[in-house]
Amino acid sequence: MIGLVIFIMVVYAKALDCDEDNQCDQLGGADPVYERLAFITALPLNNTNGYHQGPVDGNRGGSYVTMLSSDGLMFGVINIVGNFGTVFVDQSYWQSAIAASPAAAHKGYLLGGLVWFTIPFALATSLGLAAVALNADLTTDDANAGLVPPAAASILMGDFGAYLIIIMLFMAITSTGSAECIAVSSLITYDIYRKYFNPQATGQKILFVSRIVVGVFGILMGVLAVVLNSFETPSGGTISLGWVYLFMGVVIGSAVLPISFLLTWDKASAAGAISGAIIGQIGAFIAWMVTAAARNDGTVDYDTLGQNEPMLAGNLVAILLSGLVCAVVSLIKPQNYDWEEFKVRFSFPTSYNRSSLCLAQACPCFFDVLFALTLAMLFPSQRKINRVEEEERDDFPDWEMDPVFLGNAKKWILKWGWISTLILIFAWPAATVPWGVLDKSLYAVW
Predict the structure, then answer these.
(1) Is the pTM of this model over 0.85?
(2) Which pLDDT tens digit goes with each residue over 359-401?
(3) Residue 251: closest CA among 194, 324, 305, 331
(4) Which of 165, 192, 217, 223 is 20 to 30 A from 22, alpha carbon to alpha carbon?
(5) Buried b (16+ CB within 10 A) or exposed e, 205-243
(6) CA 38, CA 55: separation in Å to the nearest integer?
(7) Helix (H) or strand (E) holding 387
């Protein structure tokens, strides 16, 4: 957060001192940023050798300072589907929600989601536009590799800006990597190892298996990164961060609605969730590749698959087809789940600290959809999980587990969740349509 504030201040509030004998690469206000962006778009079109001059294709008036952008709209939809997937399919989010008290979780997650908007908005509006305004030497491959913020920071602040970006990345990556290692370890240890292979595992045994999984998964993450970086694309580059980001929803978007149904619909079944996730993903890949071929005279490769239109088709089919299949199968063969089962707690391993236990068995996620539910169908005798009695539940105050309080919390979530969703996805973008290309004063307000 400190880094974000510094970058915003340098771009829009206070320019650093310039050397009179050299070119001044400083901004320091909305007016110079706006004027430089207008100058860049007024130049003859040139997008080669690191230049990014001329009108922006697909933007209103060819301008950077407009909300009306066809590519921006497609990216927005892809971004929504992909980030639905990263939250719904990420076990670390579920672990945090389950570990938190009901009073904190139902408001904290919504407020935390709103706070998250600070990061992309601040970086894009400051360093993103600063890189264009300063005409940074960046190719399309550089931009797709995520090098726009460090390039702008280096131009504006020299080595200090570069070091600040490195610190931000290090903190974000290590935090996320740690959470993912623990999340995957909990899934494999509790949802697979303890549930199907060693139901009587002690706390020490579970801890031992968890440590092994953390190490193996950490190594696999590193190997995957090296493998992705080693692939050579037709243009001579490697698989970019931007390409992977757009592709994310095609891979994991098909689990979003099955998970939602499992949490909110008593008729949702294991067969419906599994079939929805798998068929949705297959359909997403088909739509992705067919769209790429149809738009590029039958050519299907890294470059054509990375275009916005094929990625948009794959993302939309992933999330919509999976929900349709899950709903149809669940209606044909409903599970009719009894929500009263959530009023009892899953049992804890012996010789294990309760406060450190992640109740992964209570957490539906993509791993559960494709693996744990499948194993439950293959091993029906292991479906029942040992539980402890209601009186042993001493984690939270009684009032937080009161049905009246939980009912009110559910109403609050539904009310403000839908309101914030409609505002952020529909009302807010629609309100910016009359703006067209922002003038200098409106840009300053933004």
Answers:
(1) no
(2) 333 333 444 444 444 545 555 544 444 443 344 444 567 777 7
(3) 305
(4) 165
(5) bbbebbeebbeebbeeeeeeeeeeeeeeeeeebbbbebb
(6) 9
(7) strand 387-388
